[in-house]
Amino acid sequence: MRLKDKVAIITGGASGIGKATADAFAAEGAIIVIADINVTAIDAAVAQFREKGVTATGHVCDVSNRDDAHRLMKSVDAEFGRIDILVNNAGISRYRAFAEATSDDWDPVLAVDLKGVFFCSQAVAPYMRARKSGRIVNISSALGTGAAPHNTAGSPGGSAAYASAKAGVIMLTTTLARELSPDGITVNCVAPGSFLTEFSSSTRTPQQVEDHLEYRRKHLLLRRVGTLDELASVILFFASDDSSYVTGQTLNVDGGRSDRI
Questions:
Q1: Most-buried pick from 36, 79, 208, 253 (CB within 10 A)?
Q2: Of 95, 127, 162, 215, which one is the catalytic site residue?
Q3: DSSP structure class, residue 205
């Protein structure tokens, strides 16, 4: 088992990509720590893991709050005596047309999607440094590597704030990799393309969801959206010793977006 007895914190881990990642880690023997803002979802996820005999715990954490991030890491280290893996997955979006966007659309997205990654990484670093070992995996987005046209079928449009934050995560990954590599800590990034999750569905109407799926079937090289299991397996790679000689990298998991190939 690739993660046997490793303590893994997954932010935004109670649903969507985070939950799929937690499932994949648990199957490889990890101790699961769900950090999220949805108390009900945290409790449900932790209960599900414990029913399967997985050691799991949950913490309410607003990653955009630096003090929250530091409290999370301190609590987990106190409970388990170590932190081996951090997956910075928590994220939000605000879609607003360019001419209409205000700081109310930008500030929350930058706070959670970019500053949250920094705060959690900053908070976990001392615990990983003390052990001279650790894996940090950041979740960016295909929109962080190449913006989608405003009129793409099924797109809610106005993705400037989200795309900018996710592009920032990619550069932050390389910066953190340089900062933490002397202490045996690797930092890598995954940039997902089209994966239908509760998060992505919540930003679109049902018709936009169907239009989005149809557009991807026609324009992606693989002619389909991805499954969360496929994405989680890549995150698992970066969290495990399979990637022990890889750091500062971003891997696009996007079905071959034809606008870049």
A1: 36
A2: 162
A3: -
pLDDT in the model for residue 57: 99
Map tokens 């705060």 to a residue: 119
pLDDT at 200: 58
For residue 10, give both structure tokens: 């997954």
Residue 169 near residue 113 (C-beta atoms within 8 A): yes
Residue range 52-72: average pLDDT? 99
Output the CA angle 238-192-92, nearest 5 degrees.
105
Dist. CA 248–CA 73, nearest whole Å:
22
Max distance between CA atoms of the chain, in angstroms, equals 52
Is 72's pLDDT higher than 80?
yes
In whole angstroms, give the CA distance from residue 113 to residue 225. Answer: 23
Q: In this structure, how many other beta carbons lie within 10 angstroms of the beta carbon of residue 32? A: 25
100-149 residue pLDDT tens: 999 999 999 999 999 999 999 999 999 999 999 999 999 999 999 986 65
Q: What is the pLDDT of residue 152?
A: 55
Q: How many whole angstroms separate alpha carbon 87 and alpha carbon 115? A: 14
Q: What are the sequence ranges of the domains in the chain?
A: 7-194+227-249
- HSE at residue 119, side-chain half, CA atoms within 13 A, is 22
Pair of tokens at residue 238: 């970066």
95 is catalytic: no
* Helix ranges restricted to H, the chain: 16-27, 39-51, 66-80, 103-109, 116-131, 160-180, 198-202, 206-219, 228-239
**pLDDT recorded at residue 151:** 52
pLDDT at 258 over 70: no
Residue range 7-194+227-249, CATH number: 3.40.50.720
- Is 205 in contact with 153 (CB distance < 8 Å)? no
